[in-house]
Design goal:
CATH class of the largest domain: Alpha Beta
Number of strands: 12
Largest sheet: 6 strands, parallel
Helix content: 25-40%
Strand content: 15-25%
Number of helices: 12
Order of helices and strands: EHEEHEHEHEEHEHEHEHEHEHHH
Shape: globular
Oligomer: single chain
CATH topology of the largest domain: Rossmann fold
Distance between the termini: 16 Å
CATH superfamily of the largest domain: Glycogen Phosphorylase B
Length: 339
């Protein structure tokens, strides 16, 4: 059984309640065909940890590696990563890069992040993107990369609640409360448009900073409620069933795909999001609705809220079956086995 080094598996994640389940689901999808050699040995050393496995592995899987410059010892870690890219070619180790975003959401150390991004587009043996836009974006940077890029929608779990709930929330926004999500701009627009009492809005997630939470809290009232708290799957399932709309207000500059988007679909939510990346792909499949600008957004919100039952696509069953984590693992194994 061939061996994979999977990044990130961080010891720090064990202390985080909001640990991203994408890593665990991804590793589970590989079990039938591969051994993730570092699975039970989480690291506190970042990408340096790969050194002790380097001569034992066949593949390296990299997620969110463009954020490396922001980590402790980020410059040295970045130089080490660039060395790994070249040394892997010599040793026949294949690099699999999951291109989640166009670039890091943060502008810190942007020049280093661009070096990593461009290097991975040129040197990765396999590039997986969860948005068709990612194929074109990578190709625009390095035209020769298109043959190495594979677009598969972000895998999703079917966790829909079977019982029908009374809608107590008009618009729910959930997930980490961070500037790139566009939540503050949405709330500002709501107030500027004198609509702060029109919608029942519930926003929940851990804030990226006290300052950002304070800026959001300025816009709360009896109809706009913000809860600075991690939301677990059971609570999210309940909230999605009670919300007419789950809204995403992401900025278009960096986003390609979203785990929160796919989780919302898996919970049976009626999703509205920006016309970009994976949101655009899913709108074309009639799974969600998208908006191009804020003027269009309010029209779509009002249309959906006016209906007794929210928009539910009859294609959702087939989509969930075709894009399971098991199917994702099978697709990846098929591609890797061909080369």
């Amino acid at each position: 059984m061939k061996k994979i080094y999977f990044y990130p598996i961080s010891a720090r994640n064990e202390r985080l309640v909001s640990f991203n389940p994408y890593t665990l689901d991804f590793i589970d999808s590989l079990r039938n065909n591969y051994r993730v050699i570092n699975e039970k040995n989480p690291s506190t050393k970042g990408i340096f940890d790969i050194a002790k496995y380097f001569f034992k592995i066949d593949y390296i899987i990299l997620n969110w590696i463009e954020d490396l410059p922001e980590k402790k010892g980020g410059f040295l870690q970045t130089m080490f990563l660039l060395m790994i890219m070249s040394l892997s070619k010599i040793l026949g180790i294949k690099i699999i890069w999951i291109m989640h975003n166009k670039l890091s959401h943060s502008k810190k150390h942007e020049w280093l992040k661009k070096i990593i991004f461009q290097g991975l587009i040129k040197k990765s043996d396999f590039i997986i993107t969860h948005s068709s836009e990612g194929v074109g974006y990578a190709g625009s940077i390095n035209p020769g990369s298109k043959e190495r890029i594979h677009y598969w929608p972000h895998p999703v779990k079917d966790r829909r609640k079977k019982s029908i709930e009374e809608f107590k929330i008009d618009i729910m926004i959930w997930g980490t409360l961070a500037p790139y999500k566009g939540i503050l701009e949405f709330l500002q627009l709501i107030h500027e448009s004198n609509l702060e009492h029109k919608y029942r809005i519930f926003i929940i997630g851990k804030s990226s900073s006290k300052e950002y939470l304070a800026s959001l809290s300025k816009y709360t009232n009896e109809n706009i409620i913000i809860k600075d708290d991690f939301v677990d799957d059971n609570s999210l399932q309940e909230l999605c069933s009670k919300s007419k709309i789950v809204l995403f207000t992401y900025a278009k500059s960096s986003i390609l795909s979203s785990g929160a988007l796919m989780d919302s679909i898996g919970f049976g939510a009626n999703v509205i999001g920006p016309e970009v990346g994976a949101f655009s792909d899913l709108a074309k499949e009639n799974i969600i609705k998208t908006y191009h600008d804020t003027n269009e957004l309010f029209a779509i919100l009002d249309d959906q809220l006016s209906k007794p039952n929210p928009f539910v696509s009859d294609r959702i069953d087939g989509f969930l079956q075709a894009n399971s984590w098991n199917r994702f693992g099978e697709n990846l194994h098929k591609v890797l086995s061909q080369k």
